[in-house]
Amino acid sequence: MNSNKHSVVIVGFGGMGKYHAELIKMNNSLEVVGTYDVLEARRTDSIKVGYKVYESYEEVLADPAVEIVLIATPNDVHKEIAISALQAGKHVICEKPVAMSKEELLEMLAAADAAGRVFMVHQNRRWDEDFLTIKKMYDQETIGSLFQIESRVHGANGIPGDWRHVKAQGGGMLLDWGVHLLDQLLFMIDSKVTSVSSSLSFILGNDVDDGFEATLQFENGIKAIVEVGTTNFITLPRWYVKGIEGTGIIEDWSLTGRLVTRNHEGEKIEPKPIRAGVGLTKTMAPPSEGATITEALPQPAELGSSFYDNFAAVIEGTAEPIVKNAEVMRVQNLIEAIFESAEKNQVLKDFDMYGEGK
Ligand code: NAD
Questions:
Q1: How many domains does the chain have?
Q2: Which of 55, 196, 247, 350 has the CA that lies 20 to 30 A from 257?
Q3: Domain termination site, one of 122, 141, 160
Q4: What are the Gfo/Idh/MocA-like oxidoreductase N-terminal domain coordinates in residue numbering (predicted)?
Q5: Residue 178 has pLDDT above 50, yes or no
Q6: Do 97 and 29 lie in a common domain?
Q7: Could you tell me the distance, in angstroms and rounded to a whole number, from the CA of residue 119 to the centre of ligand 1?
Q8: For ligand 1, what atom is nearest to the CA of residue 161?
Q9: Which residue has the least CA distance to atom 30 on ligand 1?
């Protein structure tokens, strides 16, 4: 083991646990020293790639060589694994969604406080370049100040895997993908959500949602539409944003997209009416030539440090966490408001977004 790196044991060596192992191999701050999984097959996978395999979770906690427990199990067991790790003096990286409820998250944060250990949630999609491109447009008003942000992910594969179908294990798409999209929005927009209107879809007949739509109104005037679908055989763009000077679109994760803005230098030529369907329209006719400018997307914003490097720096006391626990709590509160709005079929106006996360 390289003594300059902080030692990590991955608990839950499934899809995401293995992905963390791959990413950490390329990281200079952390090093995976072993894994623990309840399934024999996953232990065999771990031995094959050369990691030490712990036979029990107690063995992980009792090993003084382990500094960090990285939790990549299904969502219903995050809390118990995190709290025992913190109580054993380990720092914790926890997968999203951090917990099943606000109450669970409060218990986890109290355990981190009591132990004086670092607890950070892996909201890795803050580093997605498509999101960071929108964040740059938001921060720099590339198409004027944004007043509508539509963030969608569409798939056609239904809900993958096993536990994601099970409510008691924290399944469903609001918890799975919703938490990413909402985290991105709240990270970017520093304003209170004043109303939430949502609906969940149960097209596939599971007891958990296979998608949802939520409309959020922010105090600063921005409206956000967030949508996750798993039965979309034709997808809508990943991002569609409107600013007072133009419109932006990002089609997908490969950053295909463009901006179209008003051309202030252009000659003011009225658009010509067009035949549209069986009618005639000037309102919906394309802008006349020269009235708009099409541009490439700006370069993504930068967060300064990778998730793992930031985590190491927080342990070392040299940086603030990029994913702050108060922000994670806000997202948790918002998720609960979205569930409530859908269940009551109501626009929710007076929920406590900041709650304990101020
Ligand atoms: P998975 O089913 O592929 O893997 C989960 C593993 O945890 C399994 O190997 C299972 O045997 C093991 N496990 C279950 N209970 C355990 C326990 N008590 N102790 C030890 N091991 C246990 O699931 P996944 O897709 O890897 O998801 C795991 C977590 O990662 C979830 O919280 C999920 O939301 C999150 N995730 C995050 C991202 C991301 O981009 N941040 C992507 C995928 C999944």
A1: 2
A2: 196
A3: 122
A4: 8-122
A5: yes
A6: yes
A7: 18
A8: 2
A9: 72
Q: How far is the CA of 332 from the centre of ligand 1 (A)?
A: 19
Query: What is the distance in A from the centroid of ligand 1 to the CA of 73?
Result: 3
Q: Are 132 and 242 part of one and the same domain? A: yes
Check pLDDT > 70 for residue 56: yes
CA nearest ligand 1 atom 42, residue: 16
**Distance between Cα 9 and ligand 1 center (Å):** 14
Are 222 and 231 within 8 A, CB to CB? no
**Whose CA is closest to atom 40 on ligand 1?**
124
pLDDT band at 313 (very low <50, low <70, confident <90, very high): very high
Give the model's pLDDT for residue 352.
78
The encoded tokens of residue 167 equal: 């409510």
Count the Cβ atoms, other than its own, within 10 Å of residue 201: 17
Domain boundary among 75, 100, 122: 122
Cα–Cα distance for residue pair 57/34, rounded to 1 Å: 11
Strand pairing partners for 249? 240, 258
Of the candidates 131, 158, 60, 159, the one whose C-alpha atom is nearest the C-alpha of residue 300 is 131
Q: Has residue 272 been placed in a domain?
A: no
- State ipTM: 0.99
pLDDT at 358: 41
Q: Is the CB of 9 under 6 A from ligand 1?
A: no
User: Is the whole-model pTM more than 0.90?
Assistant: yes
Q: Best substitution site from 73, 92, 96, 166 to test ligand 1's pocket, by max atoms within 8 Å of Cβ? A: 73
Predicted pLDDT of residue 151: 98
CB 57 within 8 A of CB 84: yes
- Tens of pLDDT, residue by residue over 215-228, are 999 999 999 999 99
Domain that holds residue 190: 126-255+297-302+334-344
211 assigned to some structural domain: yes
